[in-house]
User: Which sequence fits this backbone?
């Protein structure tokens, strides 16, 4: 029997270097993740909070500081947590004057989030905030029709090299590409099943084909040796 107090949760973790050029790709990665979880309505707020948390680390800890971003969706809350190694530089809520160039970061997070805080786990600090989400949207997946439409758009764009632009420009860019690839593969399996194909069998065959291609000359040499007796 299912526990009525059980609240399902999902977590996504990403490590990166806190640098100005990483903020934009990181925002897009966060937007992709919350959409995958079925709560796109908090995407804009989540991106803004992530931007301010990362900017706070850059400003008060230093450029290129190793950091880890964790998103956790549980019940009606999306928790955004950013870990960095400096426990002494604690974020504070200050009142910025109209002509101040900075000082609004955590005030903005405080205004957008249900609550925020700082934890000190012993090996740095974790600055976090929580956003309210609609529980009805938790875990909602795109419909079958939406998946098939997305696959059709991807298939027509396979020859477009712009899809690969930025894939290796940064660690965040690489992670974004990996998330997109997972979506493409998942959608393609749904498309195949919707058209009467055995998706599991095709996935196994694709994996075999991929490994064979990766084997290169060794595979082709082995294949030729196996086929040679049949060519006589």
Assistant:
């Amino acid at each position: 029997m299912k526990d009525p107090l059980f609240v399902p949760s999902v977590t996504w973790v990403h490590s990166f270097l806190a640098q100005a050029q990483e903020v934009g790709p990181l925002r897009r990665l966060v937007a992709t993740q919350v959409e995958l979880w079925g709560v796109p309505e908090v995407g804009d707020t989540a991106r803004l909070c992530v931007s301010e948390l990362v900017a706070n680390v850059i400003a008060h800890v230093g450029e290129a500081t190793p950091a880890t971003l964790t998103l956790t969706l549980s019940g009606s809350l999306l928790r955004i947590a950013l870990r960095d190694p400096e426990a002494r530089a604690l974020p504070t809520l200050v009142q910025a004057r109209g002509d101040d160039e900075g000082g609004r970061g955590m005030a903005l997070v405080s205004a957008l989030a249900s609550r925020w805080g700082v934890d000190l786990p012993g090996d740095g600090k974790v600055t976090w905030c929580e956003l309210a989400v609609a529980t009805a949207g938790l875990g909602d997946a795109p419909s079958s029709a939406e998946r098939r439409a997305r696959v059709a758009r991807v298939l027509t764009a396979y020859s477009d090299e712009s899809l690969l632009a930025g894939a290796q420009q940064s660690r965040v860019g690489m992670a974004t590409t990996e998330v997109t690839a997972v979506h493409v593969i998942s959608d393609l399996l749904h498309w195949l099943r919707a058209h009467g194909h055995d998706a599991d069998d095709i996935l196994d065959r694709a994996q075999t084909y991929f490994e064979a291609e990766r084997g290169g000359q060794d595979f082709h040499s082995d294949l030729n040796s196996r086929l040679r007796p049949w060519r006589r």
Notes: Confidence is low (pLDDT under 50) at residues 1-6, 96-103, 158-167.
